[in-house]
Amino acid sequence: MPPGRKKTDQGTSPAQFMNETHGSTNSAVPAASVTPAWVYWVRGLLGVALVGAGYLAWVSIHNGPVAGCGPTSGCGQVLQSPWAYWLDIPVSVPALLVYLALLGTTVLLQKRPAPDEERGAWAAIIALAVIVAGAALWFVGLQIFVIKAYCKFCMIAHACGLAAALLCLRHIPLARDPATPMWATGSGLRGVPRAGVASVTAIGLAGVMALAGGQLLVPRKLNVVRDLRPAGRPVAGQTNAINGTPGEGNSAAPTPASPQPHLVAPRQLSLYSNAFLLQLDTVPMIGSPDATNVIVYVFDYTCSHCRALHPILIRAQRRFGPQLGIVSLPMPISTNCNPFLPPQSHSIANACEYARLGLAVWRAKPAVHGQFEEWMFAGARPAPVAQAKEYAAQLVGPDVLEAALKDPWIEQQLLLDCRLHHINWMVSEQPVMPQLIIGDAISTGPLNSVEHLVLLLNHYLGLTAPPPPVSGGQGEASF
Questions:
Q1: Helices 92-108 and 115-141, interaxial angle, to 10°?
Q2: 452 in the same domain as 361
Q3: For an engineered disulfide with 354, which of 94, 141, 301, 412 has Cβ 3.0 to 4.6 Å away?
Q4: What is the model's pLDDT at position 70?
Q5: Which CATH number fits the domain that encloses residue 78?
Q6: Does 399 have pLDDT greater than 60?
Q7: How far from the centroid of its chain's Cα atoms is residue 444's Cα?
Q8: DSSP 69
Q9: CB of 423 within 8 A of CB of 387?
Q10: Residue 85 domain-assigned?
Q11: Average pLDDT, stretch 176-196?
């Protein structure tokens, strides 16, 4: 050590590390800034995490499809789960902000700040790194043990974020002088005291607890209901919303902002001011085409939420009896037969084939369509196409089924169903499946139970359900 120099520092900071690489130990003398290798690694890993989180945030905000991920894929199951949100905000949004903040604090370390400023930067790095690491472990654990599905974009972002956080925590410059303060200024001592590391770590852990607690205590409601009733229009009575007089509720506007469902003729349901005319005895229905109230169900056989909703609809219709009919329209999530989906949308394998089979069974022999649907919706996933076609042939006959599949009505109906989904998407700003048109409201996403659906029917149609014959599960709706 040069004569007369007092040894005051007691920690190894990135700035000192940079000096030492140039053979200098005098932290007071400016030296060329040399970034340690670990900082480059941290920035690179955070860059990958930022790209992943930014992409998922953009997709969530725009309700767009995730590249290479359909609703039944691991990505689809993760991103459609309540765990993909925190206080109704996509978790990728706060993740993006935390990654950006951690990346920004690494830049401060290159500016060779005063000891107190450097310690403040490290306090931020420690807290943010703990949050990133804790959040990564939390979400990976959810995917493994709760959702039991994996999102590749999420896992890459979490892995890179966790690695960056651990690198930061590995290189904390611990103070050598036990008298080094954490929060006081003016000491001239460098490094972070161990007590300070513990206190800042506690702050980071509190952030992780806020994340987990927000998801547990305020779970995301996946069912979204948009009330599109025109201003001043009263809540429908038992039959007015559906069975109004011909032309009632029609608008001269070319693109109505509400479905405004009503009968314009016996067994003919109008939607969107006659933009869609459904002849109820020629389309698949759950219940009778003479029901006093009719709702419309748009679904995909491969959609997990649709598969969960189907038995709920069956039980609800049986409970209401002749008061309720449900138009059941298959809408394939596949660009192979759905021209209204964005070109970059992920197409679900065999979605078109299943939809055509369902319509063909209805067209060939409506009496067995319910049996086919019950078989198709049994289990977590639909049976292979060949097996489904074989079962359909058993119900209606092989030759009859082949003739029905060649009927031009199949493609016409598919196109109508896809167009209806697209219009519902535009007016409700929700592309999520399944869709239910209940009066002037559009419900998207899963329902909790029969009681949940009963509440929606009461709220938007004024229907009052008779008491259930057997006590069932309870559910709550959110309006």
A1: 150
A2: yes
A3: 301
A4: 64
A5: 1.20.1440.130
A6: yes
A7: 12
A8: B
A9: no
A10: yes
A11: 92
**Same domain assignment for residues 305 and 421:** yes
Q: What's the total number of domains in the chain?
A: 2
Name the residue among 256, 281, 259 with its Cα closest to residue 270: 259
* Contacting residues for 471 by C-beta, under 8 A, at least 6 apart: none
pLDDT at residue 9 greater than cutoff 60: no
Final residue before a domain boundary, out of 176, 196, 217? 217
> In the structure encoding, which two tokens stand for residue 109, read together?
């370390």
- Which of residues 77 and 317 earns the better pLDDT score? 317
In a domain, 270, yes or no: yes
Q: CA neighbours within 13 Å on the CB side: how many for 344?
A: 6
> What is the per-residue pLDDT across 248-292, written as a single tens digit (0 to 9) for each?
333 334 556 789 899 888 899 999 999 999 999 999 999 999 999
Residue 474 CB neighbour total at 10 angstroms: 10
The whole domain housing 336 covers 224-461
Angle at which helices 115-141 and 194-217 pack, to 10 degrees? 40
Return the half-sphere exposure (C-beta side, CA atoms, 13 A cut-off) of residue 6.
Answer: 3
Regarding whether 343 and 210 lie in a shared domain, the answer is no
369 pLDDT exceeds 90? yes
